[in-house]
Input
Amino acid sequence: MRNCLLFSAMSLASDKSIHDIDVEEIIAHAQVSRGTFYKYYQSVSRLFEDLAEQLAQDLAEAIETVNIPSVDKSVHLASTARLIMRLLVDFPVLGKLLIQLPWLHQNPKLDVFQTLRRDIEQGIKEGLFEKLPAAIGLNLLIGSMVGGVHTMLLTPPSRGYEDKVVRQALIGLGLEAKSADKISTMHLATKVTLPSTGILGKIDR
Output
């Protein structure tokens, strides 16, 4: 029942702001009573907090399973970022919700981008990127990704837009344009696969 409420909230968020969704809409979509809702959550905002934490955990696990055969952290970073963007556009119900959630909030339960964070930290240590605080580098990359996904969901641009977004982020991190061009257009032989269980398992494939 909890997952049913969470999925209903996620579905509704694909059409409107999470700040405009109320209890009545959620229980109508989930086809449950108001009492059932309050058995699990005190408010809609608390439901979305729980949804963010659950999605962060499930997505982080899915991203961690992707096998990108590269020891170069700039290549691994770019490939992972491009795969995440493609995933969020391929599943709009997921993408439209995720771009509304506070992923940059200092909450360890929302660290869905831990792989990106580690790549940036290591890349800075290895001299691949500028010597800047890793948090700033991560904010730069995630901000670019969120903006790119938002654009792709609103008015789908030409194929490969995610590559252009990641290219600019790499340059912002300190890579030369020529290297960023090459890295951001490398062939991706894999993809992020959503789990078949939990909330993500309810999304249409």
About this structure: The first helix runs from residue 2 to 12.
